[in-house]
Design goal:
The protein has 12 helices and 11 strands. The protein has 345 residues and is an alpha/beta fold.
Amino acid sequence: MEAVPYCMLCGSEGSLLYEGLEDRLYGVPGKFSLYSCPDCGLVWLNPRPVEEDLAKCYMNAYYTHTPPASLERSAVLRGWREFLRRLIWEAYYAYPPAGRFPLLRKAVGKVLGALPPLRRRAAYDLGVLFLPFHGQRRLLDVGCGNGAYLKLMQELGWQVTGIDIDPAAVAVCRAQGLNASVGTLETMNFPDHAFDAITLSHVFEHLPDPAKFLQECYRILSPGGYIAMKMPNIKSLGHRLFKRFWRGLEPPRHLSLWDRHTLHIILHRNNLKIYTCHTSSHIADFIYEYSVFSNEKYKKSFIFYLRKKIFKIHENFLLLFDKDAGEEVFMVARKSGMNLFAKQG
């Protein structure tokens, strides 16, 4: 473990937010504390595991060690579901027409995609990580896990590469024929301008040095390339309600916890222009369930499920007035040059 007494963004000395936290998910031994910055609001683990020991925090039961059987494209992209999805992709994500009458297909796709639930389902609920089509572009997924996302994007025409610090997760990727390597972005030594897009799904909060990571992203991105990521939102309704029991804390794997404000600071500081940054309630029911049961005072019942649904409805309503209420932050930022992301409808 190493001490991290000062905020990585502004240098202010942190104040104790929570102490005596335990790893309730995978049982990594120890008691952990979180500190918050009184000036910018960043939250971080202090002390934290040294970088060479981080992989030991991802135990054998971690979800990335399981092949993504539930996401088999042969079972999902079939029949009318595939047809409707494809129409929405063509209308909103610039994918080329897969049949005759392209103008009609695009018009129907626009109508279908105007319904947010259908558009989210068509994009597999990936949000900003469901990338628009740009031809044979190069994608790097950092923290690729079991390769479910990589496999999908490869089938959509992207040239994909994945990296992860977890050897077991990388082994699962390679067993599917995916290009994946063990390591961190800083140790891979990719050439300049090697990728057109870099994606991170619940990875940024795991990084020991986010600023150094973003500097490397900037170097290996092509002009106009972008980075898309999502992560827990420390200002969410769930954290306000559950505090030390909030599922998004996840010590000792989550080394820092972010919100829209702190993300703006670190991205601008590293010369990345923000294209979009917003919060979402998509995983509110998941967060509610795991936060409640980490408190060990509840049992599943009809009342529990009713409360879970009410929590998500409440969060959706609150988002109309409070843009920081969602459980996740979704962010896209780009390097200077032609804006590739603007192709998305």
